[in-house]
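Hi there,

I know you've been waiting on this one. I reran it after we fixed the sequence typo, so this is the corrected version. Both the input and the resulting structure follow.
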Amino acid sequence: MKKIVLGLLMIGTLFGQVNSVLTISPTASETILGNQSLAFRNPAMNNLNLIDSTSNISFTNVKWLGNIVDDMGFNYIEFRKGKLDYSLLYFNYGEQKFADESGIVSGNFSPNTIVASVGWGTDILYKGERIDSVALGFRGKVVAHDLYTEKTDGMMFDIGVHFHKLYGAVNLDLMVSNLGIMTKMNGYEIDQPTALNVGFNIPIKNKWNIYNQWNLYDGYHTHGQGVSYNFKDMLWVNAGYYNDVEHELNYSSIGMDLKYEKWKFGFGVLNGDENHPLKNTLLLTINMEM
């Protein structure tokens, strides 16, 4: 039961834990590599997109906790152009039954969370000169929770820094995430998963890429690691491992990205033992260049 609660299943615990959706890495590629959100969605990296004139739009669909329920999941859509990225996350907690004080069921409802965000990256100047290897980024987020009996909303933001090819090889990302304010829900203070995120990736000969990311919360931390193999910029084979000892949420993952002309398809599956709430979770992301 502990794993189920911490996996965002039980509606009674959502009042305190509902903001945990803000810690999800929503695309297939980053999740499979051990939840490498920094390497893929640090807003500071938008500044690097200026060398590419294309726009990218991607869509992700995930059935969450499919080892336990069959109607929980999320959809995520993202659009990138130049220094800006826009995203929308819709998380459905599954159908619930509404009962009165005597226990008589009067209907069904589906609690949900919506997170809309805008990210922006920019140069850092030193004595009027642009620093090629460093960029700064900001992301603003509007969060709305609708649990049927209670609704709340809030605003949060992230601040990120990206260091490109330090010592000619290492990409380093630093970010403070989920700063902001939330209104109370049913008298409960809603936990904000504010964290210091530290991550790096090391490309090797344009074929291999090694990833690591640490997320430092109040009193505990999580760690993800992954490796990717690039075959002729057409096929990427990805594997990773995510470790959250505090919440007993540890799992390995494997998947691939396949590119065909302007389309890129990301596939992945999360692994675990028979009782793991995320066992056999399937991820699919479709990206299109325009």
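Quick highlight: The radius of gyration is 19 Å.

Best,
R. S.
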